[in-house]
Amino acid sequence: MRTTTDKRKSLVKAGRRLIHSKGFNATTLADIAQASGVPLGNVYYYFRTKEELLDAVVHEQEDEFRSRVARFEKAATPQARLLAFLDSVIESRMSITRHGCPVGSLSQEMNKRGGASRARVNRQLVARAQWASAQFREMGRTDAQELGVWLTGSVQGVILMANALNDPAVIERQIGQLKAWVQKF
User: Fold this and answer.
1) Within 13 Å and on the Cβ side, how many CA atoms surround 55?
2) Which domains can be identified in the chain, with CATH numbers?
3) According to DSSP H, which parts of the chain are helical?
4) This prediction's pTM
5) Along the 185 residues of the chain, how does pLDDT read in single tens digits?
């Protein structure tokens, strides 16, 4: 028998997967219950609303990014950290080609929808740009903030185009060009 923690984790995992593939608005709590194997009536024990589940999904995305950053930070130089970040995009190319960036797509959807969750979702993209900016700052760049925003926006654009074209090779080629650009620093 699954524990309360296991059921909650199953709901968040299913919610995360469905929100990424279908979008927040198109995903229902019934969809999440079915995908997680948790009876719909029990979902409300863990999450009173879909927005509460969204907060849990966003929290998990934030934790995952912190974990990824911890791996990137093992690299000796800021340039190597940025390259590791770009490599992680290439590694995820199949999923993000199919469904877009889980963070970028959710940010766009929540910006159109508005509401309280908008700011928390958007902070995830801002955190990525701030992390990239910190790497450029460590390289001595006085335009570090602009470079961090540019890199983050460029990655999001590449993901959007790969999704639109349904072609993971777009990610390989374009992220390859971003890597060549980073290597010039």
Assistant:
1) 10
2) 1-48 (1.10.10.60), 50-183 (1.10.357.10)
3) 4-22, 29-36, 40-46, 50-72, 78-91, 93-99, 102-113, 117-138, 144-165, 168-183
4) 0.87
5) 556 678 899 999 999 999 999 989 999 999 999 999 999 889 989 999 889 999 999 999 999 999 999 999 999 999 999 999 999 999 999 999 999 999 898 888 888 877 777 888 888 899 999 999 999 999 999 999 999 999 999 999 999 999 999 999 999 999 999 999 999 98
